[in-house]
Amino acid sequence: MYKIRASHIEQDLESSGLLLAYKGVADGIQFPRFDDQDDGHFSASGGLVGDGTMSLTRFDVTDCVIRLPRADFIGYERTFSGQLGQLADAGQTAAAHGVGSISSPGQFWLHFGGQGAPVSGVAVTMSLESLDSFLETGNERRLSPPLQMVLSSDGLTGRDLPLIGLVQYVLDERRRGDPAFNTRRDRLAVPLLQEMMVQFLVDTGSLVLGSSSTNLDAVIVRKAKQVIQEHYASPITVASVASAVGVSLRSLQKSFRDQGEGTPRQYLSSVRLDRARECLKIGMQGSVTEIACDCGIMHLGRFSLEYRRRFGETPSATFRTARLARGVPG
Q1: Residue range 122-175, pLDDT digits in tens
Q2: Backbone torsions φ then ψ of 324, nearest 5 degrees
Q3: In 10 A of CB 94, how many CB atoms?
Q4: Rounded CA gap, 46 and 187, in Å?
Q5: How many CB atoms lie within 10 A of CB 267?
Q6: CA 144, CA 140: separation in Å to the nearest integer?
Q7: Element housing 300 (H / E)
Q8: CB neighbour list of residue 110: distance below 8 Å, 6 or more residues apart
Q9: Which of 185, 159, 136 has the alpha carbon at shortest distance from 78?
Q10: What contacts 85, CB < 8 A, 6 or more positions away?
Q11: Are 186 and 201 in contact (CB under 8 A)?
Q12: Which helix (H) or strand (E) holds 304?
């Protein structure tokens, strides 16, 4: 808990370490409704997660305004009690209040509370670098300008529940766990946090993806296909593909289904079958079994059945024909 006295705001902020802990995320805290005898408070826990491209914060504040100079971050604040509003400057009366605030990079003021009411909630920020890395679409994405949006409960209609639920879980576990375990947990949680943050931004119309990537599902499917094409020969699973893409297994399966691509497992099997056929038609040295294993296929009986169903002949027939064409005895 950071105790802030109205008559010693700058001194208390400096001594509390609050601004140092959240440098680049929040500064310039003011309590405009206090007189010299009033005290306010700003309780905050959390901080950076993963490689520092995301931050999670739980806050409990007295009626105040905070400048958010997020030069390279997009953020979302969600209150559980009290309301918040966005202001162009510290002295402006908040025109709109709600329970959620989405903001793009740039300086503006966030007003917590109203009529002295305390406000509690959580905040999550994501760097633009992390956003672009997740999407891998370069300038194909754009933030709906100007991205300063206050949402009421009706405007959210549960769209932020997966994101906020995970944020609360990570913050709760951070508070209970040991630092070393927290670091490992954060590293595992970041891909899922990224996925949920991007999906929330798309759902609210805050993030618009370019024409070559019309939605998040298309981005996920494209990245998954790239992983499979590069690693089909390894003993990868659909779960490991999802992990490499940075999404949950369920989300990966849903994205393939919604894009009319079947299932990730079917695509992986198709890539392996196609590659095996290419090798068999060349008549490479070795055996059908060795070629199948080199293509990541371990279930040889199933391989023969699926190969025949797909290509109308057995793997052995393809291999024999290719070797005879090259003058190699079958």
Answers
A1: 888 888 888 877 776 444 555 554 456 677 776 677 788 889 999 998 888 877
A2: -65, -35
A3: 18
A4: 15
A5: 20
A6: 13
A7: helix 300-311
A8: 65, 66, 67, 68, 77, 84, 85, 86, 87, 101, 103
A9: 159
A10: 94, 95, 96, 97, 98, 101, 110, 111, 114, 150
A11: no
A12: helix 300-311
d(CA 221, CA 209): 15
Residue type, 14: E
With b meaning 16 or more CB within 10 Å and e meaning fewer, what string describes 190-224? bbbbbbbbbbbbbebebbebeeebeebbbbbbbbb
- How many C-beta atoms surround the C-beta of residue 13 within 10 A? 18
Tens digits of residue pLDDT in 218-277? 878 888 998 899 999 988 888 888 877 877 788 888 889 888 899 999 999 999 999 999
Question: Which CA distances in Å does 5 have to 30, 49, 123, 172?
Answer: 11, 30, 24, 28
* Length of the chain measured in residues: 330
> What's the pTM value of the predicted model, to 2 decimals?
0.59
- Helix, strand, or coil here: 269? helix
Do residues 228 and 189 make contact, with C-beta atoms less than 8 angstroms apart? Answer: no
Domain boundaries, the chain: 2-208, 215-330
Smallest Cα–Cα separation from 58: which of 135, 169, 153?
Answer: 169
CATH number assigned to the domain with residue range 2-208, chosen from the 4 options 3.20.20.140, 2.40.70.10, 2.60.120.10, 3.30.499.10: 2.60.120.10
d(CA 275, CA 272): 5
How far apart are the C-alpha atoms of 298 and 303, rounded to whole Å? Answer: 8
Q: What's the CATH superfamily of 215-330?
A: Homeodomain-like (1.10.10.60)
In angstroms, the CA 13 to CA 3 distance is 9
Q: What is the DSSP string of 202-264?
A: HHTTSEEE-TTS-SHHHHHHHHHHHHHHHHTTS---HHHHHHHHTS-HHHHHHHHHHTT---H
CA–CA separation, 330 and 320 (whole Å) = 5
| AA letter at 303 | F
Distances from the Cα of 209 to the Cα of 106, 191, 202, 206, 260, angstroms: 21, 19, 8, 10, 19
